[in-house]
Amino acid sequence: AGWLPTNVTQKALDRKAVRPVEVALELPDGARIVTGKEREEAGQLTGRVEKRAIMWWNNDHSTSDRAKVEWVVEAGAGERVGVVARHERAGTVRAELTL
Fold it and tell me: What pTM, to 2 d.p., does this model score?
């Protein structure tokens, strides 16, 4: 089984007809971002796996069907931070982290 890339076709990229994946934080009152921006672009994700989806020895030769975005957030213990990834063709996924 496989899946399509977020851009669906190379033509969409060539014509700049598709936006990148956007990942955003939803912070509670009083929290702040120490490193990073509230919204980050993660580019396009490839379709069916071209390489193995695993990292060895801190070497990021993993598949390009994933993206990595990092933040340093300052907030109180037990506060909840939301992470939202959106793409106009692939949809939206949300996660909530408790600090």
Answer: 0.75
